[in-house]
Every structure is written in structure tokens, then in C-alpha cells.
Design brief:
This is Guanylate kinase 1. By secondary structure, the chain is of the alpha/beta class. The protein has 8 helices and 23 strands. Helix 6 runs antiparallel to helix 7. The N terminus is likely disordered. Bound molecules: guanosine-5'-diphosphate and adenosine-5'-diphosphate. Adenosine-5'-diphosphate binds next to helix 2 and helix 6.
Length: 379
Amino acid sequence: MGKAPAFFVDDVQRSFSNGFDLKLKDFDSAVAVGNKTYVICGTDDPTSSGVRVLNKLTGEWVIPTVLGTKPESFKGQSCVLLNKDRILIMKHNSKSNESVWFLEVDTQFIRDQKKKLGTEVVSWSKGVIGNAKRPLVISGPSGVGKGTLINMLMKEFPSMFGFSVSHTTRAPREKEQNGVHYHFSKRNVMEEDIRNGKFLEHAAVHGNLYGTSIEAVDVVADAGKTCILDIDVQGARSVRESSLEATFVFVCPPSFEELEKRLRARGTETEEQIEKRLRNAKAELEQGRSPGLFDHVLVNNDLDACYEQLKNILGISESMNTVPTTPSKVFDLPVDFSLSKVNEKILINHGAAEQKVLDLSSMKGGAPGRTRGLEMYVL
Ligand SMILES: Nc1nc2c(ncn2[C@@H]2O[C@H](COP(=O)(O)OP(=O)(O)O)[C@@H](O)[C@H]2O)c(=O)[nH]1
Ligand SMILES: Nc1ncnc2c1ncn2[C@@H]1O[C@H](COP(=O)(O)OP(=O)(O)O)[C@@H](O)[C@H]1O
């Protein structure tokens, strides 16, 4: 069952002249993408990379660098190539949110990572049926009120929003908790993680390193929530240039004097740090208004009014909070099935009268390298 029949690559089993002694085992399945064959390993072995790549031109096998969290195990999975650059993998699982996975193999994100790491790269992401949310990126100078607005949003709509916890090399403030406000990191560790492709974006801000890890966004997306990223203008630009479809909001102060007043009143920085932040604020305010970068510019004069404007942008009102949100729709994948692709639809064939269909035209992005939402319906 479930061995991706139409997409199985016949020559895989004949091409084992390699140094890895890799065999296509019972539960493996394979998908050809251009000159390469990606073998998805049906294994319970947690140390397995989950994927091997055969270069059909050279006959060589490569174990790729694997980004994202790979599924714990697969056996009897079905695979299908989606759009030249990513593979859909499905398997019956009693936990419906563990049934659908994507493996990105040749998207822009993957090509960038390949260049950076100099190895073959693939990226796993957990599929979400019908529930991918467009992340919210909030930028603005230090002290303008970003954190305050985000806290209000998360407090009023706890089931709807989740915060992307960034990494930073700056020291924690008195009330900041590791893993909640930031992941506080040593510079050498963070630099190593950046080299290893763990970050979606990173930037040097006010003399420290800050970055959004792939995992930080994944955790929120896996919970079916809208991810909020509080990042600087450079970070917003990186995200804008990536494949992540987000809403970009820039928050301005009513005046420079007011910004300085708020920053001082917050009392979290030394005089030297305040001055550095104010110097940087001038450039940030200019960049924030540069055309095409932000979708919305808010002036945070009266806090409540600004918060209302933010909620309007997000299309939310108080009543929406009473609507329960679930991580994903109940998704009942048959035990025995095969997949086929017809135009923009994936057909889940399982010998019953009713035909389950996944609609690829509705596919929404997660973070770069993270395919996410698909609509499913029954014919
Ligand atoms: N590029 C990028 N910027 C970040 C990230 N996390 C925080 N920042 C930005 O770094 C700047 C400084 O943040 P922080 O030290 O918390 O100070 P605050 O903005 O004064 O509260 C702010 O502009 C944040 O938006 C991140 O992951 N990536
Ligand atoms: N509209 C506002 N009017 C007055 N003070 C504000 C307003 N918005 C935020 N503040 C205050 O300004 C300070 C800086 O806000 P904060 O959310 O920490 O900024 P950021 O996260 O952008 O650095 C905080 O003490 C906050 O209470």
C-alpha cells in the first residue's frame, strides 16, 4: 500500500554504485525531480536523515543537509511531486496533524541555502490542511511601542496569535525570560547556527545580533496561529525578499521627542544605549517609509487608537475571539491510498466512491522553505 505507484522511479534500484551502501528498502519511496531522485526513507530510525538523493547524471548518492523537523517515522507513505520544487508526502496517522508533510528540494530558499552551505539541502515542513495563516511583521524604532502593541494583541486574542521568539546576543533585561522574550545566545553559537542555515533572517541591530530561526516560526505555525515577528527594518526587508507572504506594518512615533521620552521612561537601557538607539531611529524612520517595503504605516500617538488601527489592518474584532480556532481541520486520511496529481489538484485514491481532493491553487506559504496550507474537499 501507499508506495507512490505512478511516481516510483524504476532505475533507483539499479543505481547503487555508491560509497554509502544505501539500499531502497521496503518502505522507501522515491520521486524524480529533474536530474535527481529523492528517496524518502520509510524508517523508524530517529538517527536517519529521512532523505537520500541520487544524482542520476553521476550515479552518486548524497545524504543532504536536512532543515526543519523531519517526521518521526514514515512507513507506507505516498509521495507526489507538487511543482518541480517540492514533494508532498502523506501517510495515514491517527493524529491527523501528523499526516501531511512537505519536502522542499529546489525552491529559492533551498537554492540559497545550498550556496551558503555548499551541500545538497532539503527542508521538511509539516502540512496544515486548510489553516495556513499569513504572518505579521512589525517593525519600528526602539521605544515606539511595538512590544506594547504585540502584547495587547496576544492578550486579547491568545488563540489567534503566537510570537516568533527571536535569538539575540544582547543581554536580557530585568524582566525578560529566556525562551519567552528572546532566546539569549552567545555570539559564537548564534553565528554557527546562522552558518548552518537555522535562521530565516538575521541582522546586526544596535551592536547586537538578532535573528528569526526557522523553528521559531514553525512552532507558531504548527499551533495553527498567526505568527508575529517583531524585527528591525533590515529583517523586514529580508523577509520581504523571501517567499514568506506576510503583512508588513511599520510603527512610527508621533515625534522624535516623544520617542526619546518613551525610551527614557522605559528605563531599560543605559544612557549610551539610548543614544545609540536614537541615532539608529533616524535611519529606521527613513527606511520605514521607503516605498514597497511596508504595507501599512501606523503612527503610535494614542495607544488605544493605534491598537484599533492595527486590528483593522488584521481584519479582526473582539467578537472573533470567541470563535474557537483549532490547529487544523479534522483530516481523515484513509489507511490505504495512493496519490495522483491532475493539474492543480492532488487526488487521494482509496477505492471508495468519495474522492478526497487537495487543492494546490490554495497552497499558502509558511516561512521560507516551509510550505504550509492546503485546502481539502471531498468530491
Ligand atoms: N532582524 C531582526 N531584528 C530583530 C529580531 N528580534 C528583534 N529585532 C529588532 O531588534 C531591535 C532591538 O530589539 P530590542 O533589543 O528588543 O529592543 P527594543 O526594540 O528597544 O525593545 C528592534 O528593532 C527589534 O524589532 C530578529 O529576530 N531579527
Ligand atoms: N502610545 C503610547 N503612548 C505613550 N507611551 C507608550 C505608547 N506606546 C508605548 N508606550 C510606552 O513606551 C515604552 C516603549 O514601548 P515598547 O513597547 O517597549 O517599545 P518597542 O517594543 O517598540 O521598543 C513603554 O514604556 C511603553 O509603555
